[in-house]
Amino acid sequence: MAKKTKPSREEHWLDEPEEHDFPAAASFLALLFSETAAAVIVDRLRQAAASSYKAKDLLRAARLELLPRSDAEVGTDLKKVARGERLSPVLLVRAGAGAPLIVADGYHRICASYHLDEDSAVPCRLVDSR
């Protein structure tokens, strides 16, 4: 029986976030910041340079639990990767020293990537909240 290989970053990540990720991030961020501040942060996310961090480190920095493979959206993302589709990079906001990292968009994609390989590099855009 052949050993399964895990997809590499190039095999399952887009180079740029999808356009619909930005309004989703704005909607989430408007729960944490004023709508004006959320819009400014999203504008900065649009302009931010690409970077990448390990899936396990993103979850730890955000103080988020790993969602199971059985989670509907995580499962959908894992199926996309299995079909050879690429996932959108995640959108992150650094809230300040000691505060949890904010995953403005992409929590399920981080979890899916963790299930593929916890040490895999997850492409992202990262900005400070101020």
N-to-C span: 53 Å
Which CATH C-level class is it? Alpha Beta
Here the CATH topology equals Conserved hypothetical protein from pyrococcus furiosus pfu- 392566-001, ParB domain
User: Judging from the principal axes of the Cα atoms, what is the shape?
Assistant: globular
Poorly predicted regions: 1-10
Structural class: alpha+beta
Main beta-sheet annotation: 4 strands, mixed
Measured by DSSP, the beta-strand proportion falls in 15-25%
Number of domains: 1
Mean pLDDT over the residues: 92
> Which strands sit side by side, in order, in the main sheet?
1-4-2-3
Structural description of this entry:
- 42% of the residues lie in helices and 17% in strands.
- The protein has 130 residues and is of the alpha+beta class.
- It has one domain: Conserved hypothetical protein from pyrococcus furiosus pfu- 392566-001, ParB domain.
- The chain has a four-stranded mixed β-sheet with strand order 1-4-2-3.
- A hairpin with a 7-residue loop joins strand 2 and strand 3.
- Helix 2 (21-29) packs antiparallel against helix 3 and helix 4 (55-62) packs across helix 6.
- The relative contact order is 0.25.
- Mean pLDDT is 92; it is low at 1-10.
